[in-house]
Every structure is written in structure tokens, then in C-alpha cells.
Amino acid sequence: MIVRCIEKECSCVMEVERQGVPYYCPKCCGKMEEVVEEQLTAMDWCQLGIFLSENEKEEEALSCFLKSAKEGEPWGICNLGWCYETGTGVEQDERQAVWLYKQAAELSYMPAYCNLGWCYEHGIGVAVDMELAVEAYKKAAEDDFARGQRLLAICYAYGNGTEQNEEMAFLLMEDAAHNGDLDAIYYLGTFYWNGIGTEVNYKRAVQIFKQLIEEMEDPDALFYLGYAYGNGTGAERDDEISFSYYKRSALAGELTAKNNLADDYYLGRGTEKNIEEAIFWYEESAEDGNDDACCTIGRFYEEGIGVAMEPERAADYYEKACKSKTENKGLECYLRMAFCYYTGFGREREEKKAEELLRMGFSLLEGQERVTKEILRRRNQFVCEGTIKTLVSKLLSFCNDSDLREKLEEIQKYF
Ligand SMILES: [Zn+2]
User: Fold this and answer.
1) Distance (Å) from CA 289 to ligand 1 centroid
2) What order of strands is seen across the sheet that includes strand 31-35?
3) How far is the C-alpha of 249 from the C-alpha of 247, rounded, in Å?
4) Where are the domains of the chain?
5) From the CA of 10, how far away is ligand 1's center (Å)?
6) Cα 195 versus chain centre, distance
7) What is the CA(180)–ligand 1 centre distance, in A?
């Protein structure tokens, strides 16, 4: 049977199985009364559809949205579009989804403008067209709709489909955050952290990330907090607090946090030393494609640290790192993989391949500044203490190419 909350302010509608029991609204704790289908408004049908889709009754949910849409309710039309976009209760049909979003948008339904913009941005059911995406987001943003403000802010921040305008991006993101959009709160934190449309302000960023994690276990915000406390950036350095944030972030799935948590366990930084936990989290992070974690766990298998020595497995990890597409990928995996090919460690010896890998690695580092940054980044991590220096001098003893030797010698100077 269908029950509806009697509180006018609340809009809860649910389907329940048993009869004759008083039901209390899960949203407002008000009383719920039984209703027959004829009593349901177009909005009620939407509420019921959402309840059913959350309870994995996809086809029933679809028919509720359809009933709502037939009465011209834009919320119902938009949700029906979402069913077509995602293939919920109906065969996926992205073009049909776009058509429905357009109908709902014409009825001035702001979420539909956002969905439509998203389709244009990602080429869902239509060709990618960033300008039309921006136009759609603008409609929603002008109506003070938070998701539209956030999506438009991102376009301004990176100059997607419009001229780059960081100040505008910042103001819009602030509005979206004030309007309660949780993703916008996260972005606002990163804007303060990176100085996008505002002065860099780590303290303010830390405050904002803390505000966000009170609402949700956001893996990226937790990572920033771990970093802030671990490095004394925007907060007073505290390894224990850093460890606890990294752990929460890692548990929420953030791959760099997994690597940094493993470092903490390995070093006993902010926690007790625990090599098993360290290995577990390096492997988790490596599994997600984090190149630093691949290099570290690979080296553990290369040298038999906490695990049995396994040359092939070590080389597999280095290779995985070379192929990974993570942002700011480092040089180390190429050096390590080149070493495997020069010496036949875990792989057949192949000098050409080794040189090719070194070239690929060096091509990542454009200009002196990047080289320095890269070297310092890894040198500051425990795992590099001495090991890269040794690695580079070993590579120099195998490498005959003068251009590559020159670059290797340059790196050697930093250690
Ligand atoms: Zn209620």
C-alpha cells in the first residue's frame, strides 16, 4: 500500500508492505496516512518513484515518473530523462534522455538545464558542444540554482566553452557553496588552496575542508587535511592528526592517501610501525594506479623488504606505474623499469627498451623547474633515501647514450 506524510511541509510518499500499522515518516517523524493512487499528485508520483528507485524497484519507479510526466510535471519529465540516460527500468536511450531534459528545461526546471548541460559537455545523446553546455549551466546559475553555479564555475575556472575567468569562477563557487552544494564546498576549498580567483589561503582552505567533512566523508577533502597536518600547511604540523585523516581518506578510496598512509605505517609516523599494514596499503594504492606506491612496493619485491623477493613481480609493478595515467606522474618508475631491462631483472635484457624508457621518463620533465620539483618531491619521501642515488649511478654504468647520460648525471647532483 502507498502511504503519504500528513505534514504539509514534508512531501514523503512511500510504498509499504504491511497493513494496519501506524507509519511514521522517515523524514520528519510525522504521521503517515494510507492513500489510494487517485489521490496522488504529480509531485507525489515523483516522490514515490524516487523511493522505489532507491529500493531497486526500477521498472515500478519508471512507471511512477511516467505518470508524473504525463501530467506535465517537469520534475517527473526530468526524472524520466534520467531513467533513459542511465537505463533505469527501461532500455538506455541517451537521445530520448536529452529530448526529455529539453522539455523539462522549457518548463524552467533548473535541474533539467544542468542535466542538459552535462549531456552537451560529455557528448551524451548529443555531440559534445561546450558552448551549449555553458549556456545551459548559465540558465540554472542565473536562477541561483547551486549545481548550475558550480558547473558553470568550473567552466570559468578552466576556460571550458567560455573565456577563462577565475574571479567569476570563485564568486560563482562561493554562491553554490552558500546554497549548500557539497561538491561546491570542496571546490571552494581547492580554490583557496591553489589561489584560483582569490589569494592562496591554506588556513581558509583547511577550515572549508573541515566544514565539508562534517557533512560527508569526502575522500579528497580528507586527503587535503592529511596533507595540511602532515606538512604544516594551513595547520600546525601534527603527524597523528595527519595519519587519522589519511586513514579516513584511504578508507574512502583516495589513492594517494592510501600511499601516504602506507608511508606512515612503514615509518611509524603518527602511528606505530606496522609493515603488514604498510604493504597492504601500498598494494591497494598500486592497484588503483598510484605510481609512487607501485615504485615502493615494487622495490619491496625487488629487495625482499617485508615480502619474499620476486623479480618478476617487482618489474610488473614498475611497468604498471609506467603505464599509469595518474596526474603528476613521476620519473622514478621509468628509471626502475629501465634498470630491469638493462640488467635482465624480472625481464629479458633489452638495452633498446631501457633507453626508450629513460627517454619517456625524461620527456615528462619539461624544463629545469619541473626536474627540481620532481626530485625534491621524491627525495622528501623516505622511500628514496639513498635508493634513487644508487639507482641512478647503476643506470650510468649501463647507459652508453651520451644525451641520456647527461640527464642522469644532472639528476645525480640533487642527491
Ligand atoms: Zn514527513
Assistant:
1) 45
2) 13-15, 2-5, 31-35, 23-24
3) 5
4) 1-38, 40-91
5) 4
6) 20
7) 21
Dist CA 89 CA 55 (whole Å): 12
User: Given this model, what pLDDT does residue 382 score?
Assistant: 57
Residue carrying C-alpha cell 629501465: 338
Q: What is the pTM of this model?
A: 0.85
Nearest 5°: phi and psi at 4?
-135, 140
Q: Hey, what's the cell of 140?
A: 540554472
Q: What is the pLDDT of residue 329?
A: 78
Of 296, 259, 248, the closest CA to residue 281 belongs to 259
| CA–centroid distance, residue 23 to ligand 1 (Å) | 10
Question: Using CA atoms, how far apart are residues 264 and 243, in angstroms rounded to an integer?
Answer: 7
Q: Are 23 and 32 in contact (CB under 8 A)?
A: yes
Query: What pLDDT is attached to residue 170?
Result: 98
CA of 3 to the centre of ligand 1 (A): 11
Nine-digit cell string for 344: 635482465
Predicted pLDDT at 415 = 67
Distance from Cα 378 to the centre of ligand 1, integer Å: 55
| CB-based contact 125:102 (threshold 8 Å) | no
Residue type for position 24: Y
- State residue 130's pLDDT score: 97
**Measured in angstroms, how far is the CA atom of residue 11 from the centroid of ligand 1?**
6
Which residue ranges in the chain fall short of pLDDT 70?
20-22, 366-386, 415
On whether the CB atoms of residues 14 and 48 are closer than 8 A, the answer is: yes
Cα of 177 vs centre of ligand 1, distance in Å, is: 26
Task: Look at residue 373 in the predicted model and tell me its pLDDT.
Answer: 64
Burial degree of 179 (CB within 10 A; 0-12, 13-18, 19+): middle
Helix (H, G, I), strand (E, B) or coil at 331: coil
pLDDT value at position 357?
96
Q: What spacing in Å lies between the alpha carbon of 31 and ligand 1's midpoint?
A: 7
Cα separation, 383 vs 159, in Å, equals 38
Ligand 1 mean position, distance from CA 30 (Å): 5
| Element spanning 32, H or E | strand 31-35
d(CA 15, ligand 1 centre) in Å: 14
Residue among 230, 223, 144 nearest 184 (CA): 144
- Distance of alpha carbon 322 from alpha carbon 332, whole angstroms: 9
25 Cα–ligand 1 center, Å = 5
CA dihedral 385, 391, 392, 397 (to 10 degrees): 150
Which residues does 71 contact at the CB level (< 8 Å), separation at least 6?
A: 42, 45
